[in-house]
Amino acid sequence: MIGYAEIATHFRRQITDGELNPGDAMPSYTEASDQFGVNRTTVIRAYDILKSEGLIVSRPGKGTTVAARPSIVISGVDRLDRLSRTGRRYGPGEDSTGHRVMWRSAYDAEVCRALEIEPGDEVVIRIRTFRQDGQPTSVGVSVYLPRTVTEVQELAEEGRMQGYFGDLYTERTGREVTKGQRTARARQASQDEIDALQLNVPAHMAVAVLVTNVTFHDEDGPLAYWEDVYAPGAKIPTA
Description:
Elements (H helix, E strand, L loop, with lengths): L3 H13 L12 H8 L3 H13 L3 E4 L3 E4 L5 E2 L5 H8 L7 E12 L3 H7 L6 E11 L2 E10 L1 H6 L13 H9 L4 E2 L3 E6 L2 H6 L11 E11 L2 E10 L9
Antiparallel strand pairs: 1-2, 3-8, 4-5, 5-6, 6-10, 7-9, 8-9, 9-10
Helix pairs in contact: 1-3, 2-3
């Protein structure tokens, strides 16, 4: 039987291929249920994934439509694909440092939307700086819901996990982890990010950085939101 992940993939492909364009109406829950022969809950779960990826939006009185596309879709192989495929955490000459794990209240609108939480809800944040041949290239920030951390104990203390968290989560729970579409956008770097990337810029100078993000789900909803902040000119890992 088709599941929510397959339904999300079907519509994601239609949106990215241009078969569905910004402003186009999505099938109603009932229409999509009939189309795929599934119950309404499965369709809602699939639509929630697409909403978390910024691909569709729901508005009172207007139903669900395809969203505008300010983000760039990242294609090809990324660090997570490499880890799943080869078991290698790092590419040649790559490592990471500054691993930290902390409990915090979430206020970032993008994180709250992706994880379907309210501003101020408690999350677990894992931070590390990736380096290529000793030079910082990106800051990795992973935001986890508390239920995720309960199942993946390797998040404790140093924040180093033995393997991909999705595999660990599946081993502990039996639930499959679905990785959403990775997208990118530009924004201004925080001072902490400037320091971690060792950018030599005058104090208080605005620095534009490329930010990629992806959200993970299981059958019960969002699990984690991962963000990588790249130094200007840095190459996104693709092997």
